[in-house]
Design a protein that fits this description.
single chain; about 180 residues; 5 helices; 7 strands
Length: about 180
Amino acid sequence: MKKLSYILTTVILIITGCQPKKLDEKLATNLILEKNHYPAIVHHDIFCGDPTHAYTIFKSGLVEKGFVKVLQSKKFGDTTSFVSFTPAAKPYLLHTPADDKISKIQRVKVADEEFGAIKEIRMMSSGNKAIVEYTTIRRKNVFAVAIKNGLKDTLNHEVYFIRNDDGWQLLDKRSEIEFLSY
């Protein structure tokens, strides 16, 4: 019986000793991909009943490409939308919540956001905390022109990791002050 307890103790020490002490790029990448589910869809809401938004869509060139139709004018009391979508736009149309549909809002896919690369891993002096900076790349589609101020091609992100008995874990969004006191 004593031998069994020594064997179990040895196995437990081996298993806990095999956890990586230092956060490396490969582990950080896997944890980020698992938590944030990349590639992710970037969407934009088009307000089909708003004449100002319709003008922005008209100027974007989507009408000439055959993805949308824009009414130039409508009569008082007419409830049709200023913006309507052609069958060519169907692959870019996303599920829109019922409340938004009542307000004549259509959600469209404007890009796919993919994981780029890890820029930096900063380990804290305690050795059980790390701050990781990484980039994501956005692959835009034809509806990206509908965004008034444009869409950045790359984004920088900062995430926090902590090592506990189960290994390294990616924390939910926290401020750096909260992270340091964790």
